[in-house]
Amino acid sequence: MGHEVLAGVLQIRDGRLQVLLWQRAREPHLHRWSLPGGRLAATEDVETSIRRQLAEKVDVHKLTHVEQLAVFSDPDRVPGHRVVATAFLGLVPSDTDPEVPADTRWHAVDELPETAFDHHRIVLAARERLRAKLSYTNIGFALAPAEFTISELRRLYSAALGYQVAATNLQRVLARRGVLQPTGRTVPAGPAGGRPPALFRFTSRDLQVTDPFAVFRPPSGSVG
Amino acid sequence: MGHEVLAGVLQIRDGRLQVLLWQRAREPHLHRWSLPGGRLAATEDVETSIRRQLAEKVDVHKLTHVEQLAVFSDPDRVPGHRVVATAFLGLVPSDTDPEVPADTRWHAVDELPETAFDHHRIVLAARERLRAKLSYTNIGFALAPAEFTISELRRLYSAALGYQVAATNLQRVLARRGVLQPTGRTVPAGPAGGRPPALFRFTSRDLQVTDPFAVFRPPSGSVG
DNA sequence: CCAAAAGTGTTTCCTGTACACCCATGA
DNA sequence: TCATGGGTGTACAGGAAACACTTTTGG
């Protein structure tokens, strides 16, 4: 019984949420598109393993966030002998265009090609996790450049969530939570004119839960 | 390389959040307490496996909820050759007292005995998951009897969350979300008198996200 | 001066919290 | 009728959404 690690590496490219896939050159599932990853080695844990394996496809320094998604373990999920997969979500900021091998390409998540095995499900799980965490964490830092304007950030959130987010409220919500910081600098306006936008950055570039209690908050002034 | 499944099975007993553990009768970690589970067989997926293995410890019909937590894969997490573990959260309603084997016992999560391997971490992960989901899902159904009074439910939520929850607001929040239903019936008052409490039930006994968007809701009237 | 884009002020709504008050029972 | 626990009504606060309005640029 084998164990593999797989990652849905997501990035906003051309205003759409895209995932990194490579095209199989062998049976089974010849020519279908599949997730980067590979076999878990004996001396590494799953996170070390997926980072090592991703390094072969993407410059690993560009990976701003990696987290476990779930185990996929249907006995027939791949033909032949049984392989359990631990799936990951990986994120790359929108201002990088990592070199990728020739057999590898970015695909819009809402227009996936024919994928191998159960990789389609895994990509959708990665998207769901990202969407959920955009609401209650600062995970946006992993999709955005180091510094950005509110409109750029709005486009990133809109693409990831799949619906339009208003710039006004985006800024206000993130500012109230202390997630965003103004840099004090601005950037020249575009060709159509307009007021030159201010540059912002994320206060922290580590994942933090910013809205921990949806309800049933502990009484104010107590410790969890 | 082996694969095992382990479950943190939680129940509110005597007003405290408790976890089901069994005491090892062999080295390594002789006499330490460990989580129920065992080796993943070749023809089952991880969820089937954990349910099968739990059936040996608890009447499986009493398990109202089972969900994946995470993979624990440190190469040295157990001595000897390498075993990857998929951990689960399991829940048992407070009105059942399942028969358990002689080596098995319930332990308060906040006063764990010496546990084997990395099982301590897994128990804490199970508690965190439960606490988080109590806020934004109807997962309370899995801790509560089929019908219950608001005070009973308040005690369950307080024990699971680790702080006092007000009955007034608990009822209001769950009612507003459509999670609770009055049965119309009441129950005799206790020995100290008092108004006889009304009986409620959960509208659904399947896990449902009741508060999906912390923020960045899609514009009202759109589809995700 | 006008169009365009960015950013701010203001209003409204909703949800959850806090707390006072009313209700129904046993002794 | 009083103590006790259950339940409701009401006021308050915070956060987010909607939208009008102001600011700052390019042409």
UniProtKB/TrEMBL annotation, chains A, B:
<feature type="domain" description="Nudix hydrolase">
    <location>
        <begin position="2"/>
        <end position="130"/>
    </location>
</feature>
<dbReference type="InterPro" id="IPR036390">
    <property type="entry name" value="WH_DNA-bd_sf"/>
</dbReference>
<dbReference type="Pfam" id="PF00293">
    <property type="entry name" value="NUDIX"/>
</dbReference>
<dbReference type="InterPro" id="IPR000086">
    <property type="entry name" value="NUDIX_hydrolase_dom"/>
</dbReference>
<dbReference type="Pfam" id="PF21906">
    <property type="entry name" value="WHD_NrtR"/>
</dbReference>
<dbReference type="InterPro" id="IPR036388">
    <property type="entry name" value="WH-like_DNA-bd_sf"/>
</dbReference>
<protein>
    <submittedName>
        <fullName>NUDIX domain-containing protein</fullName>
    </submittedName>
</protein>
<dbReference type="InterPro" id="IPR054105">
    <property type="entry name" value="WHD_NrtR"/>
</dbReference>
<dbReference type="InterPro" id="IPR015797">
    <property type="entry name" value="NUDIX_hydrolase-like_dom_sf"/>
</dbReference>
